[in-house]
User: Which sequence fits this backbone?
């Protein structure tokens, strides 16, 4: 479980996070939802420690990340896997080398064990046999799957996904969503997905935290969204659903 | 001053919480190949012609019949060893290696590859930059020794081909009043220049913000800053060790 309390983050005069708090539950897909420029990605970067919040705390199973010393932070980070918006694969390494990278750096496994583990993860994300391809030789959807394999290869307890569907066609986006959901349940991972995609909300969101202008306006499950009493959230949801239907009709 | 402060903090961060040394071995070897093998051609061409031009221009300026011809060999040797091989080679490498380092790190930064390393609990600065600095410190002296040899040889070819002096005179001049410390001085300068070029270029690339345009700017900035720093260090080292 990840808990964040009273997070504030300011860039110059732009107050991006205004004291947001919330709980990201273990073994569930937690969605951080909101339009562009609402502070979702900043929140995500504060959670994983890429940004230092001006105030507030992030607790990983009770361990305060930003108040930890360097060794403790390292220990927490080694439990984190992340899928980046642009996949962030190392473009000079093959698919196998990309997925093996965390094992090379963090484990004392023998070479054979590492290869077995990499092959297992690649098979799990549907990329068996693609070991020797370079990132530039595979599609965007496959790059995302390699990113997921790299994120889970070291048995991460926490998985963060930054806009996992961006730039993908609807069918591939659903496949990626399903993969994230399956992996979350299979390995009991605390998964956090930053998105503005309604398909993700309706398809995989066990818990949804809606943000607007740096504040959390609504929190609940995907089954509760139609009963939400927050006007801004309703506007966001129904505008997106209407847009989605319009797209489907065309 | 702020830039200098950030640079010093960056250098300090390379050594804090770094990974076990075994992690760096392959990286260092890769960097040695990237910097060394890939720079051989440019170093060979530049150093040979610089030696040749030095010999021809020295001969052109030797108008007094009282100055023996072998002085040309001696002057080429001292100019090449003391200044041309270490400094010109380093300036050329600042352009080639410096822009490559800044460009590759800048691209890694804007495509979130550095963030991906950081997320894993790895000191990304140390993992990416330290091998480049150590690789440069290992390979630059090798390239500069080669450059010095080729510079002197280029002077020999040009001097003899233009009938400015004979082979025997040139070889005698190269050996005349040779000071072994000058070679040590050349290597000391080179190691300092290697550190300056690799670290400043890494610093420029590592903190790139924005997109492709900014990566280009970071590369240009890296080359400009490295060249200025190399020339400044050249003067300071000469003042400290030769005067």
Assistant:
């Amino acid at each position: 479980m990840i808990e964040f309390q009273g997070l504030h983050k300011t860039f110059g005069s732009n107050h991006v996070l205004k004291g947001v708090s919330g709980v990201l539950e273990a073994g569930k897909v937690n969605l951080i939802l909101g339009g562009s420029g609402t502070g979702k990605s900043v929140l995500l970067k504060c959670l994983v420690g890429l940004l230092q919040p001006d105030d507030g705390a992030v607790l990983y199973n009770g361990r305060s990340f930003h108040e930890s010393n360097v060794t403790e932070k390292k220990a927490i980070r080694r439990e984190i896997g992340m899928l980046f918006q642009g996949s962030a694969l190392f473009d000079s390494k093959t698919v196998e080398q990309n997925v093996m990278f965390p094992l090379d750096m963090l484990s004392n496994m023998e070479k054979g064990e590492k290869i077995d583990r990499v092959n297992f993860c690649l098979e799990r994300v549907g990329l068996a046999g693609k070991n020797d391809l370079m990132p530039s030789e595979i599609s965007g959807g496959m790059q995302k799957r390699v990113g997921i394999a790299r994120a889970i290869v070291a048995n991460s307890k926490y998985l963060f996904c930054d806009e996992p569907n961006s730039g993908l066609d609807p069918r591939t986006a659903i496949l990626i969503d399903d993969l994230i959901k399956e992996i979350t349940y299979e390995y009991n991972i605390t998964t956090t997905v930053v998105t503005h995609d309604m398909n993700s909300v309706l398809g995989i969101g066990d818990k949804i935290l809606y943000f607007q202008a740096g504040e959390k306006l609504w929190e609940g499950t995907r089954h509760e969204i139609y009963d939400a009493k927050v006007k801004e959230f309703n506007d966001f949801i129904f505008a997106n659903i209407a847009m989605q239907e319009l797209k489907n009709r065309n | 001053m702020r830039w200098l402060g950030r640079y010093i903090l960056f250098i300090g961060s390379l050594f804090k919480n770094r990974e076990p040394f075994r992690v760096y071995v392959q990286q260092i070897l890769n960097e040695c190949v990237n910097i060394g093998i890939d720079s051989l051609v440019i170093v060979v061409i530049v150093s040979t012609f610089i030696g040749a031009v030095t010999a021809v221009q020295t001969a052109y300026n030797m108008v007094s019949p009282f100055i023996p011809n072998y002085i040309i060999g001696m002057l080429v040797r001292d100019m090449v060893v003391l200044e041309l091989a270490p400094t010109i080679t380093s300036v050329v490498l600042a352009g080639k290696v410096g822009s490559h380092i800044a460009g590759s790190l800048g691209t890694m930064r804007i495509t979130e590859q550095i963030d991906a390393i950081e997320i894993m609990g790895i000191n990304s600065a140390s993992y990416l930059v330290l091998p480049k600095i150590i690789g440069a410190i290992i390979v630059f002296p090798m390239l500069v020794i080669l450059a010095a040899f080729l510079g002197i040889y280029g002077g020999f070819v040009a001097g003899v081909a233009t009938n400015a002096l004979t082979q025997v005179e040139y070889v005698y001049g190269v050996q005349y009043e040779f000071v072994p410390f000058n070679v040590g001085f050349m290597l000391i300068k080179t190691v300092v220049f290697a550190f300056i070029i690799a670290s400043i270029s890494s610093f420029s690339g590592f903190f790139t913000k924005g997109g492709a345009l900014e990566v280009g700017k970071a590369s240009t900035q890296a080359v400009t800053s490295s060249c200025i720093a190399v020339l400044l260090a050249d003067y300071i080292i000469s003042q400290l060790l030769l005067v």
Remarks:
- Chain B has a mean pLDDT of 93.
- The helical segments of chain B are 2-15, 22-61, 70-110, 113-119, 124-161, 167-175, 181-206, 212-242.
